[in-house]
Amino acid sequence: MTCHSAFSANAIPVYPAPDSTPAYQARFKVRHLVLAPGQVLGPFTHLHRAKHLVVVSGAARLVLDGAESALFETRSADIAIGVTHLIENAGRVDLHLIEVQTGAYLGEDDLLADSDQAA
């Protein structure tokens, strides 16, 4: 399942920035994600990869296994393997994130997405 299929019908898909080229090797992947104001990504769980998120610009609401926090420009967060997580653009401008995925397996079928699960 790709991350786009987990969005509700009225959600805007996350898109890579036009000038970014993802870095990808056997055990890591780096992506530049852009979320529109109000856009939500998740909730998701990964069984084989961890993530490190850095907010480049904008404001994010991050929910990790039910614990909510705010992330602002230059702040970062770690998401461990198996942690259910949700990211929302809580601001009025686009949210730019750098996402570093690490782990033994980085395929999109590692993604568990359930629109009924509460993050």
- CATH architecture term: Sandwich
Instruction: Tell me the series of helices and strands, N- to C-terminal.
Output: EEEEEEEEEEE
**Continuous helix count:** 0
Unreliable residue stretches: 1-13
CATH superfamily: Jelly Rolls
Please state roughly what percent of the residues sit in beta strands, choosing from under 5%, 5-15%, 15-25%, 25-35%, 35-45% or over 45%: over 45%
- Helix share bin: under 10%
Structural class: mainly beta
Main beta sheet = 6 strands, antiparallel
What oligomeric state is this?
A: single chain
How many DSSP E strands?
Answer: 11
Query: What does the overall shape look like?
Result: globular
Over the alpha carbons, how many angstroms does the gyration radius reach?
13 Å
Highest-level CATH class: Mainly Beta
Q: CATH topology, which one?
A: Jelly Rolls
- N→C terminal distance: 19 Å
Return the domain count.
1
Mean pLDDT: 82
Textual characterization of the structure:
With 119 residues, this protein is mostly beta strands. Helix content is 0%, strand content 51%. It contains no helices and 11 strands. The N terminus is likely disordered.
